Amino acid sequence: MNARNESLPIRIQFVSLGCAKNLVDSEKMMGLLAEAGCTFVSPDAQADLTIINTCGFIEEARQEARQTIRQALEDKYSGNTGRIVVTGCLAQLGAGKLLDEFPDIDALLGLADRSRIAQIAADLVQGTPAKAKKIKANTVIKPFHTGVHEDQARLRLTDPSWAYLRISEGCGMGCTFCTIPAIRGPFRSKPLDRILAEAAELVRDGAVELNLIGQETSGYGSDLGLVSGFSELLKQLNQLDLLRWIRILYAHPATLTDAHIEMMAACQKVVPYIDIPLQHINDRILKLMHRRINRKQTEEIIQKLRHTIPAITIRTTLLVGFPSEKDSEFEELLNFVVESRFEALGCFTYSPEEGTAAARIKNHVPQEIKEQRLDRIMTAQQQIAFDHARRQVGKNPDCLITSFLDPPAVRDLKLDRKKIWYNARHRGQAPEIDGVCYLAGEKADKDLIGTIRPAAISGHMDYDLIGSV
Q: Is the whole model's pTM more than 0.90, yes or no?
């Protein structure tokens, strides 16, 4: 990062909500603000400006964003913060509605104008009242349909030993339940040379693990005319010195090819892990969702992954209660979960999104039924996940040690207080969404932080593993 310019001494409270893609946006904006001389303060500290980077993907996320805005406004009324800027997906999706609901927001910032954050902060905090009023009056959210942001010089919010690496923006798959194309535009791949430059910067900054993200990572390069774009990307990243782990998140089953899977197996730095949202397994529902894949093809992909990469961890995401989903179609999905025994799985209930084709389908499933189906899926998956955790006992996986475990957490987890404990993850555990490893050591060794070391797994606690360095 460039040396700070002390010309903008503004105290900022920054709140980042939503997914990993949003987190990268937050890190980039914080990098720009830090370069301009701003400082960041904790939620209970006095601030000149509060910035909220929102998620707008589903109703639950929108409610969280609105509650965060309400809290920021209360802080503004009580004098704990000065101005309020709202950015991110919810600002992109519903700018007019947000200003109607929260007229005391000082500025809205669309995704296309991320690079203007430092100037807006300066104008709001240091400019005249008339200038601040003009910023709000002229709020125009531009459609984000061209180009891909560069993500270098980020002020990272993750542990120093790992980072997210965004390889694309937007989505062109056209799933009937999804608002992402309306928010982030069509699918656009980031140029390969730029990705490699960003990856090299992250590794120089201490990251030994890079987690590839995008709306559908396996489709990388298709818009650039690259037949094997994703495979070539993995091959190039695999050659980076000091990089140890490459993890694939958000692959789309319709764009994940045999060649991609074979390249995953061939690259020693690509960990045996994939996050591949399947959403459903019934052919009629998959067609209504416009997933571009059927049950037979889905099962072939899973078989190919497990055959080619025997130690692979497969994480998936499912959607229950899609409009017109029958009891028998849900039972088919539940049986598929039980038979497939995914190592990790997330499940959501369908929520109608304004402007999507699925919202116009008749025979919506009652919310009570959706919740019951969600509970049945997660109850079945919990037993599968616990069984998987039990099978790790006695093994010696390589683990990335990310930080010391705080003493209060040691107490709450009822771990041996005489030992030093570390937070860690093995190759089958993605950051922030999967379980973790709690590893014991005889003494505090800060040199272990950020390194990959063998561990001895001696037990498990639900989804998490217990062991020693």
A: yes
